[in-house]
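Lab notebook page, bench 4
Experiment: in silico fold of construct C2
Operator: M.H.
Input chain length: 495 residues
Purpose: comparison with the prior construct
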Amino acid sequence: MSATPRRILMISSEVESLARTGGLGDVVEALSLALAERGAHVIVVTPLYGVTRVPRRTTRWPGSVGVRFGWGPADVRHAGVLELETTRFPSGGTRRVCLLDDPPLFARAGIYGDSSGAFGDNELRFAVMSRGALEIAARAWEGGPDLVHAHDWHAAFAVLYARLVMGARWARTPVVFTIHNLAFQGVLDEGALDRLHLPREAFRPELLQHQGHVNLMKGATALADRITTVSPTYAREILTPESGFGLDGHLRAHAHRLVGILNGIEARFDPRTDEALACRYDVATAAAGRAECKGALAAEVGLDAGAGPLFGCVTRLTWQKGIDLLVPLLAEIAERGGRVVVVGQGEAELEARLVRAAHSFRGRVAVRLAFDPPLSRRVYAGADFFFVPSRFEPCGLTQMYAMRYGSLPIVTDVGGLHDTVVPIDVPGDGGVGFVASYAEAASLRDATREAFELFEAPESLARAQLRAMTTDFSWERPAMVYERVYEEAVARTTG
């Protein structure tokens, strides 16, 4: 097998420290750093949005990068490049981040849209991001990268451009494509072929054509040397009609190149060092520390003081996340002496239902319609139990964050939730959470009742919390698996 590629170009619409809406940004941030720590030289390319949190120390590249986005001689944008300070590791590895600066496309009050909805030119925006990333890598490294790692449909353009329109050298460059959420595939009209520099001959069923449309996810998975997704169970689920979102047959045909790699979580999610908490704690001091955090959280969000369990939920308020399954349980939780805090934003109807519940059960249910990372971490530290009732969940990170802080997850048995949450076995003194067998309100109610029962057994509860806190969700093992996948991609290209 070929040696692990050392010059890796990573392309993503989100990077956690800069701009993100969900787990995609968290994964790209952490994986790029983990690979660099192990000796790789990684360049991450992402747009410079109007909402990007730009660090103070940056360098602007001289001149601009020519980014072709169409077939016409004038279809070239000239974008700037703002590079962050390089992160260097004792291994010799480096992580560089380059922001593609094209203000008319990216300097807006949102990543994918704003209060008026999704931006109408997202196809062009992410085509430019993807092609721009390839051009940046070609300038940064003589001979270009050893491997391209593209994330989700926004970066699928990079796979297509490298393989189909940018010449023999790019066509031979190994490519890994990661599916973070198959529900979003980058479906465009046929005219996108002419608008966005995609060859007409690629518009066929085995590549880009799908149900009469251009499907970027389909094209990228057809052309990539290796396809990954973010948990082993989700890799199996997307091969089924129930979870394949219309691409299950296509993905089954390419299943020999598909692998599920469970995400890790960053070391910064640590109750020993988290300055957002009312009290920092470790395994030895968890009982007292979490009790103090619980009281402080209740006071912060306006919940009554009390001895009952506190349930938390931090999520996007969407159908996928199963929040409509949680709402009917709030009355029973309140009546049994429990309290609930929900933090998140999303669909207007779900927001309204949660706000009504908070009014109906004032002091027992609190809702914060916000994206608030510090408050989210205070929920992990202060809640006894943590809801993740997703209908489908490629990996999920919040259940792992919650466990790191000692909050026991209540989850549905899907995707990465299946892979990370072992059901609690009180007689056997094992497990770390509660698993609803089905994404249904009745099944979630049963799991919640089990949590109430465990709360009445304080010693068993404390042992379960310590098991959760000491579960290894570091990025070390996932990074090693990605290295093997990269080696396989190189071997496929050069073999």
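Observations: Residues 192 and 214 are 7 Å apart (CA to CA). The two ends are 9 Å apart (CA to CA).
Next step: discuss at group meeting.
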